[in-house]
Design a protein that fits this description.
mainly beta; 4-stranded mixed beta sheet; 51 strands; 0% helix; 57% strand; elongated
């Protein structure tokens, strides 16, 4: 009997034929039995070892210009699929496939331009504002060096400031075509030939151009020197034009009035024993011719010649009162309306039968103006005061006091009587204010005396056709009234309503405008 042990080895990509003809490719112990030439059993034990033979794939990348060493030792610098056949230490073939990618490394240039009042952000984030060549280095997502060179040009942006002046009666045209008339700093922006903003700033000064009117007076016989040196003696309107130190027209209009110098003669006669006060204030008791030189209300000389005669005879005196809009006829027929003492002499055959002295009192006619028609709002008050000394008063409602406080609208007519003047009247109409309305948006009917009722508040003292209704969310009417002072207490059919939002509307006629007013909305009942 024979026993044989075999220890063969193969590579993993090979097969092995056992003594009995069986083909295997995995490691293990295989036993085969045979009959030898002597007819005895023979055993062959095969201890098979399978050694590895590799077949691997590798993915790799490089940047352009960089070499890659393959597993077989060869250097390559272009992308592609490379197969390396090797023999392991066990003597088996080993195949390594390399899938090689060559990534680009970029180098680019950018031509850019900015205006001188701008800045530029380089690809690397740096901010620059001057022209030049700026290199920027980066790594791509594959780790390859890339360079971007920026060639930056800076274009000019013009900024100009200048001052200018105009006269106050002129206008100024700005570079953008706008017209202005007031001084100040004006800024106009333009785009120049390089496409850059240009700013023109104008500091405008407005110099005064005077236009004055002068009122002047002189007396007859005097002269007046105009602003330009011309001498005039007649009334009229004179215009002189000048140029100011800033070159602006200055116009002075002189309205000249020439007042006359008065020369009057008065003839008076009195009875012996009377005194006479001349116009200049001198008191005389004897006849004669007296000269009084006065200054008139216009400032001019007024010469009055008084021819005074004293006669023997009696005299009488009376005091007369007239209104300032009335005249009085003196005994000799003169009509006067100025207060004073007037003396009329009615001569008898001897030239002095009677001297009648009239003391004329002129009562100023009262003026009355109640003011423009107006309105009263929110319980307002208006005080009317027509107080005039020594007068009596009558209103259209038979009130007789001069001072009244008005709190209700209406028409008020006042009459002032002051003897001997005719009564004067004036009327003022006081209207009711527009009806403003305030409607709360919530109320709390909890009986604490605050916000227990919900109702609109109207500023009018009275409205017409008033209707106020409230509905719950299902459209059921829970309250209505036609009285302005009524409000909802949160109950419906004596049942307390739940806390909720309720809809309302209010309608009325404005008593002033006679227009219908309508409001609707919602209110929150809070408990």
């Amino acid at each position: 009997t024979n026993t044989i042990v075999l220890n063969p080895s193969i590579c993993s990509n090979q097969t092995y034929t056992l003594p009995n003809g069986t083909i295997v490719n995995t490691s293990g112990t295989y036993t085969n039995t045979f009959l030898n030439q002597y007819g005895c059993d023979s055993t062959i034990t095969t201890n098979l070892v399978v050694k590895p033979a590799y077949n691997n794939s590798i993915t790799a990348s490089i940047c352009n210009g960089i070499s890659y060493v393959l597993p077989n030792g060869i250097s390559v610098n272009t992308g592609g699929i490379y197969i390396s056949n090797l023999v392991t230490t066990a003597g088996c073939d080993s195949i390594i496939t390399v899938v090689l990618t060559a990534h680009l490394a970029y180098a680019t240039s950018i031509n850019a331009s900015i205006c001188s009042n701008q800045s530029y952000t380089l690809p690397n984030g740096t901010i620059v504002n001057t022209g030049g060549t700026y290199p920027n280095l980066f790594s791509t997502i594959y780790g390859c060096d890339s360079s971007i060179t920026v060639i930056l040009t800076v274009k000019p942006a013009n900024n100009i400031t200048y001052a200018d002046t105009i006269c106050s009666n002129q206008n100024y045209t700005l570079p953008n075509g706008s017209h202005v008339t007031s001084g100040g700093t004006y800024t106009n922006s333009f785009v120049n030939q390089f496409g850059c903003d240009s700013i023109i700033t104008i500091n405008l000064v407005v110099n005064p151009a005077f236009n004055q009117t002068v009122a002047a007076t002189i007396c007859a016989g005097q002269n007046y020197t105009l602003p330009n040196g011309t001498i005039v003696i007649a009334s009229g309107s004179y215009t002189n034009t000048f140029i100011t130190q800033h070159g602006c027209d200055s116009i002075i209009t002189t309205n000249l009035i020439v007042y006359p110098v008065s020369n009057k003669t008065e003839t008076k006669s009195f009875c012996t024993g009377d005194l006479y006060v001349l116009p200049n204030g001198t008191i005389i008791s004897t006849g004669g011719t007296f000269m009084s030189q006065l200054i008139s209300m216009n400032g001019c000389d007024s010469n009055i010649t008084s021819i005074i005669t004293f006669f023997n005879g009696g005299s009488s005196s009376s005091t007369i009162t007239i209104c300032s809009d009335q005249n009085y006829t003196l005994p000799l027929g003169d009509v006067v309306n100025k207060a004073g003492t007037y003396t009329d002499t009615i001569q008898n055959a001897n030239g002095c039968d009677s001297i009648i002295i009239t003391h004329l009192i002129v009562t100023k006619k009262p003026s009355l103006f109640l003011g423009n028609d107006t309105t009263l709002c929110d319980n307002g008050r208006l005080v009317l005061n027509i107080t005039t000394p020594n007068a009596t008063y009558m209103w259209n409602d038979n009130q007789t006091l001069p001072i009244r406080t008005i709190s209700e609208p209406g028409t008020f007519i006042a009459e002032i009587s002051l003897s001997p003047c005719d009564p004067v009247l004036d009327t003022i109409v006081i209207n009711e204010c527009e009806c403003d309305i305030y409607i709360p948006n919530a109320f709390t009917p909890n009986g604490d005396g605050s916000n227990d009722f919900f109702r609109p508040v109207i500023s009018c003292t009275s409205v017409e056709n008033y209707a106020f209704k409230i509905y719950n969310r299902w459209g059921q009417e829970v309250f209505h009234t036609s009285l302005v002072e009524d409000g909802w207490d949160g109950y419906f059919k004596e049942v307390q309503q739940e806390m909720d939002t309720y809809m309302f509307y209010v309608r009325y006629t404005n008593p002033v405008t006679k227009k219908e007013v309508f409001y609707k909305g919602d209110v929150l009942l809070i408990r």
